[in-house]
Write a structure and sequence with these properties.
Layout lengths: L1 H6 L17 H11 L2 E5 L3 H12 L6 E3 L3 H5 L6 E2 L11 E5 L4 H14 L4 E4 H18 L6 H6 L2 H4 L2 H11 L15 E5 L26 H13 L4 E7 L9 H8 L5 E8 L7 H6 L5 E6 L7 H16 L5 E3 L3 E3 L11 H10 L7 E3 L2 E3 L2 H9 L9 E3 L5 H12 L18 E3 L10
Parallel strand pairs: 1-2, 1-4, 2-3, 4-5, 6-7, 6-12, 7-8, 8-9, 9-10
Antiparallel strand pairs: 11-15, 12-13, 13-14
Length: about 450
Amino acid sequence: MIEKIIKNEMLKTTSCSHDLKENSPLTDQLVQELKKKYVVIYPAGYVGQLLQKTLSEYGVTIDAFLDRDTEKVLKTTSIPIMEPSQSTDLPDNSVVLVTANLDSMVDLLSNIIRQHNDKLTILNGFEINRSLRHSICSSKLANQIHFDLVECENCGFERHGCSICDKYLKKVAGSEALENDWRSKSFDWFGYIVGQVCTLKCIHCCEAIPFLKDHKFVPIDVIVADIQRVASSSRFLTFVELIGGEPFLHPDYPELLKELLKIKNIGYIKSFTNGTVVPGEDLCQIMKNPRFMLQISNYEKQATGKLLENINKTRQILKEQKIQYIFTQNFEWQDFSSFDLNNENKKSIKKIFEACPLHCCNRLFNGNLYRCPHQYAGVELGKLKKLEVESIEINKLDEKSLARALEAFENVEYIDACRYCTMPFDAPTVPAGLQLGAYTG
């Protein structure tokens, strides 16, 4: 019964879905069926814990978690936790809800369970969570309750989209449509590189920080003016990422966030950090803003001494201050740091560009907009040329000309940098965050 419900098209979400699925009678049937089952969530990470929270609002009890790191998970929940190999001990009426926001990962994790117990019912918990959250988030929007952006991210907003969250962000950001709107409608997010200074020296850094001759910060007035300029030429920027180096090292970072949060046409500001710079009181207070999201890259295995101590201290302070954040589990990277000529066939380059997960990872640095980190790093290192259309010097154009340039920029079929890149098919897999040594500049 439960398999037939979940297979129905009305409950399916796909990688190109741009909305949470509206609740239907089938959703109610699914909830009722789950209440009859021994419900298991695998794994027990952020998405799994969000699914637990979602199901609890529907009165569904989670009976167990499956996860490889049982000891760590036990510190965050009182629900029984087992290793995947122990799925052989699950009762016959068990349903395993696999929580991953990529179909390939759902398939991989499902196969791991089947290797231990091929009689279990296994469902896509990520899709179920997005379906069930429709009424929850619609109610929040109607009652003007602030959304938890970390929950939205774990629900798949940035990757899969959601019209409910989009409406919420436009509302809290004070975004307004213009009559005969000339602003770019397709350009809706980018990352700003606030500085080229870092506490780490990652060999495979996609921004090539350890290999730059100069290590500098972009002045706060330049950053604010650049972001305001792009925002003025865009109908709506869902979010703007702040990237480094290490953003928390910027000497004016708290003031920078204050100024950026005043810009109405931006849904939220998302900051990355490696956690090695402990945030002060001023920064902590700003990070509580509902239009701010923090993402910490996990360098616990790479950092030692004072840096590791700072990572632990940063996470403790965030917990004490009740600041939500995403903690990225970086186990492996793809190394695309080479700038050797790798591709020359035009059709092949187009295919590479379309398949590359970084092809829309726009980067803005000191007035120059690039399509991806590799292109930016190559220009900064002097390895690649800065070409028109696929890069924009934003301060040389008026607002309307910039809007047209952003549209053309978003619709390029490929960029020249793809000829000098190994992504996505040929980039070797390497351990995350291998170090040359701590930066002392």
